[in-house]
Amino acid sequence: IMLHSTSALSLLLIAVTSNLAMAIKKEKQAPQTLARGWGDEITWVQTYEEGLYQAKKSNKPLMVIHHLEDCQYCQALKKAFAENEEIQEMAQNNFVMLNLMHETTDKNLSPDGQYVPRIMFIDPSLTVRADITGRYSNRLYAYEPQDIPFLIENMKKALRLIQTEL
Q1: Residues 6+ apart with CB under 8 A from 65
Q2: Whole-angstrom Cα distance, residue 89 to residue 87?
Q3: What is the distance between the alpha carbons of residues 9 and 92, in angstroms, rounded to a whole number?
Q4: Distances (CA, A) of 110 to 34, 119, 128
């Protein structure tokens, strides 16, 4: 019996220390609250208005991600988005980034409905790019995890359009 309780105790100790180590590791990294899991290295703006201002000021397109915490499709897309180095790098360097868990008053951001997840681009002239769409005709701005390469192409398209149009 003594042996049994010692092994149980050491297991408990291991569990506690690994949890502690994880808590410390989390603490150190101070995750950015605005990232909400979409990418901690990315600088996120807080509001749509701030996003528009920054886009105009920096001459970078604004990328708006509409999502909800309890949406499994959003969670799946978020994971793929956060794990993709090319997306993270472009988002960090070439875009003003915003992820929203509520609708804005700008009806241009829901041209075909208020579904999630949806990703839209606004160029520095503050034009919502209704011409940069995903692969689904019933939800024009929806992306699924397997559409990440397509999203990368659309990010590049958003960058190309500013160069050619402004």
Answers
A1: 38, 81, 97, 98, 99, 100, 117, 118, 119
A2: 5
A3: 46
A4: 22, 10, 10
With respect to residue 6, please indicate whether it lies within any of the assigned structural domains: no
**Structural domain boundaries enclosing 62:** 48-159
The reported pLDDT for the residue numbered 28 is 46
Burial class (CB within 10 angstroms; exposed 0-12, middle 13-18, buried 19+) of 22: exposed
Instruction: Count how many domains the chain has.
Output: 1
- The answer to whether residue 13 sits within a structural domain is no
83-126 confidence digits (pLDDT tens): 999 999 999 999 999 999 988 888 999 999 999 999 999 999 99
If you write DSSP's letter for every residue of 51-118 in order, what string do you get? HHHHHHHHT--EEEEE--TT-HHHHHHHHHHHH-HHHHHHHHHH-EEEEESS--S-GGG-TT---SSE
Q: Which residues of 43-59 are buried (b: 16+ CB within 10 A; e: fewer)?
A: ebbeebeebbebbbeee
In whole angstroms, what is the distance from residue 89 CA to residue 109 CA? 24
